[in-house]
Amino acid sequence: MHRMNIALLHYSCPPVVGGVEEILRQQALLFSRNFNNVKIFAGTGSQFAKNIPVEINPLLGSQEKTVEMSVRMYLQGQKELFYNLKEKIKNYLLKSLEPFDLLIAHNVLTMRYNLPLTYAIHEIAEKNDTEVASWNHDCLFFYKDSDRKFSHEIYKILRQFNKKLTYVAVSESRKKDFEKLYGKDDCVTTIPNGIDPKSFYKLDDSSVKIIDERNLLKADFIMVQPSRLHPRKNIELSIKVTSELTKKGLDAILIVTGAFDPHEEGTRRYYNNLKQMINDYNIENNVIILAEYRLKSGEVINSNRLNIRDLYLISDILFLPSFHEGFGIPLLEAGMIKLPVVCSDIPPFRTIGEDSVTYFKLDETPGNIADKIIEFLKTSSTGNFFRKVIKKYSWDNIYEKNLQPFLSHLYVKRNKKTLDNY
């Protein structure tokens, strides 16, 4: 894995609100936590994270008056101001980009909001050691009702393919749009936008540590059992069902969030028996019991209410196999966040869940219960879409599958180019 110095560029950055600005923010944080050095260059905005430096230069923005004037004058045949601005921006960027391996320019090579900047980056790509990636979200030429003035020669740069640039589109449909625009096949790489479940859900730091260490965002299926470690909670059945799910080809994870019952000495023995059972079934990587959970670093994570909420949010079902209960508060919690429930068919659960949850009889085999879960998953379009988003579009997974190989390729390309110049 190569650690890179990466510059990100857009007309504006957070706290300015916008779709591209949000992608810029998420990419900057993602690159940084994967041990790259990151800096943002923008026309407006300010530093939004302690470890992400931001450099603001109004000449990079979309609403700088001199930039707007230079384009208007160019359209009237007076080109001097435009080219002077282009040179000024180019020289500023050339100096600023000296420490960087890669410049990722978001939308500024495909939109019309700062044409001197667009021309400057094309020229930088022609002569500079820094690799330049045009990260293409949109282009004015995709819309039939665009103003006729955009047929002027000054705007041709927005549809001009430059072999010195590396092009990225944020979806397969956009890739096709841009390759048609450039008149070239297979000249654009698709790297999708993503979402960070950890920040979206505002997860607690201790929850994030468990999620990262156990690679929970890559699992096929997660079921959570928010139960204290007590025999009446029937955690043995949860372990057996998890084993059956893995036998049926699912990378299934069981998370038991409960701590020891402070009123009963025997619960620690019960916990040790559960651990032995997990070992016997050879599913140590598929079961997480949060009671006294210890990270590889040695840090102990103590179960608390915030952890439980967090783990609800990343789970596919609430699984409750209790022999008996007085009520069933976890069903209410699951209902509040629209988490599907699979539970034992006992009176308190029936009263709360009525026809809105999936039941199993306590004398059913673990294999039959696993089949019920799989059948439920097949019919749950919302649940399937949730897991697809988590696995395919979480930024951490996109980084591993798409971004890290892409960055490494550009890093090697840049270093080869540097050596060739000697």
Give the averaged pLDDT, no decimals: 92
CATH class of the largest domain: Alpha Beta
Strand order of the largest sheet: 3-2-1-4-5-6-7
Question: Unreliable stretches, pLDDT < 50, 5 or more residues?
Answer: none
Q: Give the number of helices.
A: 15
Structural class: alpha/beta
**Cα separation of the termini:** 25 Å
Q: If classified by CATH, what would the architecture of the largest domain be? A: 3-Layer(aba) Sandwich
Approximate helicity band: 40-55%
Total count of strands: 15
The share of residues in extended strands comes to 15-25%
Largest sheet: 7 strands, parallel
> What oligomeric state do the depicted chains represent?
single chain
GO molecular function, one term: glycosyltransferase activity
InterPro entries: Glyco_trans_1 (IPR001296), Glyco_trans_4-like_N (IPR028098)
Pfam family, one: Glycos_transf_1
Keywords: Transferase
Structure description:
- With 422 residues, this protein is an alpha/beta fold.
- The chain folds into two domains: 5-195 and 395-420, Rossmann fold, CATH 3.40.50; 199-393, Rossmann fold (3-Layer(aba) Sandwich).
- Helix content is 44%, strand content 15%.
- It is built from 15 helices and 15 strands.
- A seven-stranded parallel sheet has the order 3-2-1-4-5-6-7, sandwiched between helices.
- Helix 11 links the parallel strand 13 and strand 14.
- It is elongated, with a radius of gyration of 27 Å.
- The mean pLDDT is 92.
Topology:
Elements: E1 5-12, H1 19-33, E2 37-44, E3 54-56, H2 65-75, H3 80-96, E4 102-106, H4 115-127, E5 131-136, E6 166-169, H5 172-182, E7 188-190, H6 197-200, H7 205-213, E8 221-225, H8 235-247, E9 252-256, H9 266-280, E10 287-289, E11 293-294, E12 300-301, H10 305-313, E13 317-320, H11 329-336, E14 341-344, H12 347-353, E15 358-360, H13 366-379, H14 381-393, H15 395-420
Parallel strand pairs: 1-2, 1-4, 2-3, 4-5, 5-6, 6-7, 8-9, 8-13, 9-10, 13-14, 14-15
Antiparallel strand pairs: 11-12
Helix pairs in contact: 2-3, 3-4, 8-13, 14-15
